From TrEMBL, chains A, B:
Entry annotated with the keyword Transmembrane helix: no
Gene Ontology terms, MF aspect: ATP binding; glycosyltransferase activity; triphosphoribosyl-dephospho-CoA synthase activity
Name of the top EC class for this enzyme: transferase
Pfam families recorded: CitG
Keyword check for RNA-binding: no
EC number, UniProt record: 2.4.2.52
Name of the protein this chain belongs to: Triphosphoribosyl-dephospho-CoA protein
Keywords: Glycosyltransferase, Transferase
């Protein structure tokens, strides 16, 4: 049996190994300055933070530690969003809600368990989340004017404003929706992650092939928010429309070349749907931890 | 900074990600029942055993734990030989020889340090090594008649014979040479692993590309002992001759297609030079840990 922290680590590895994952680094594709090995090293580096989450540390500091470790490779940001999903999911997998003090029992990570985990986050967790941005460059949108003091890119400089407004980490996530579908998972009980885990379970073939199919299905259902932030809503919509056509014809089975062409095209245009990859990693964790799938 | 156990873990991941690695699972190739994701899960599973080695546990039990964790995936044996090299190397990286009791200082893993580690192994370490064979199917040659009671395939049934003869783990390794080039590393101060680490340092390009070049150079210099055991000395010699021709012309730079053809040919014939991959993983660890290379 792997521990929840190990399953989270393996989910990160399986996510990047799955191919084709249009626009992202995958088993068959590197980006110019962001290569496969950076993701391997990022996953290894995140391990101690994920273990902290499993051992009962507060979510914010565990996440910050995971990010600090992840960032110790030369590709800079590889798995920030994925870790923001995995940290509370790992905690949910070791929390027996009937006995909140008992972290020794591993349980399937349920939506209600992870909702409780995020609802219990504090202002201190939010402060640690802001500190995490000092370890790595994360691409985010400009906040609205009244939120400028809380721009995550200010890192720990934003903490006094955070404390003044008394915002917990889940409050910060609520402020980030819409426009950030990782944050959206936090406020919707990780709805898409759990649905995608079910899709992984019902798909056929080796797990990386299933993950590629689930990635395409996620990309087809909502425009990727990282693509929207970097390239605009129009491009994000175009990518989703194309993914939607391919998913509708089950192209990974019926016309794999078409998906490969799509993947190469997005890589060439520098369009990487990173949010969709983050949710794929979360789904892999849920499916592994709940033994819906195996490797 | 990654810990020695994390660098060992990353070495396993980089080894399998390197391509082309003729005959082996690599970033671009799976074998029929042994796929890339099995190696990812094997690396994750081995983590706690590698941590035991770093924390000062005896080498035999740490290795057995690493193998037991590695084997918890559906491809069966992925990294047995690599772990047999990495376990003493990890210990050597945390052992300050001037202060043997101090495991808190990380040092470059030197040949003399790892020689001391293997020289200090005991009969109990050998017993744990035999138990490790119960977790996984390892392809080994038939032992000579006088060694039949010590056939590793007997697992813990061989332990009484082992204890009667008073054989330590390094003694068992000495008995396995010639015919097993992983064992040979144990009795030669990990000579080829350290030489290969230097080659990784002096090669150009991303680390997985360097590892592929070093794999080819290792395959060119000595017939792979796993190939000899499975397919005979003649086949092992043929593979080495072909690797030697390709290495001599620096084919990975000058005629990469020729190496890819060689790789596909070996995969199609079921010839996997696993021992050479094990030494490549050991070299990656030494090079990472000594900061000769970075990711």
């Amino acid at each position: 049996m792997r521990t929840p922290a190990q399953n989270a680590h393996l989910a990160l590895l399986l996510e990047v190994a799955s191919t084709p994952k249009p626009g992202n680094v995958d088993r068959h594709r590197d980006l110019e300055d962001l290569r496969f090995e950076h993701f391997l090293a990022g996953a290894v580096g995140s391990q101690h933070g994920l273990e902290l989450a499993a051992d009962g540390a507060a979510i914010g500091p565990a996440f910050e530690r995971a990010v600090a470790g992840m960032a110790k490779q030369e590709g800079d940001n590889t798995q920030f969003g994925a870790l923001l999903l995995l940290t509370p999911l790992v905690r949910a997998a070791v929390t027996d809600l009937s006995q909140p003090a008992d972290l020794s029992q591993s349980t399937d990570p349920s939506q209600s368990a992870v909702e409780s985990v995020v609802d219990e986050t504090t202002v201190a967790d939010a402060a640690a989340f802001y500190r995490a941005f000092e370890h790595v460059d994360v691409h985010v949108a400009d906040p609205p004017a009244d939120m400028a003091p809380l721009d995550v890119r200010r890192g720990s400089d934003a903490i006094p404003a955070l404390e003044k407004r008394g915002l917990t980490l889940v409050d910060v996530m609520e402020q980030s929706v819409p426009g950030d579908d990782v944050a959206r998972e936090w406020v919707t009980g990780f709805e898409r992650s759990f649905t995608a885990a079910e899709r992984l379970a019902s798909a056929d073939g080796p797990l990386p092939d299933r993950a590629a199919a689930v990635f395409l299905s996620l990309l087809a259902e909502r425009p990727d928010t990282l693509v929207a932030t970097k390239h605009g809503e129009g491009v994000a919509r175009e990518v989703t429309d194309r993914a939607s056509e391919l998913a509708a014809q089950d192209a990974l089975s019926t016309d794999r070349d078409a998906v490969e062409v799509f993947a190469d095209d997005l890589v060439n245009r520098g369009i990487n749907p990173g949010t969709t990859a983050d949710i794929t990693a979360a789904a892999l964790f849920i499916a592994l931890e709940s033994e819906l799938v195996s490797v």
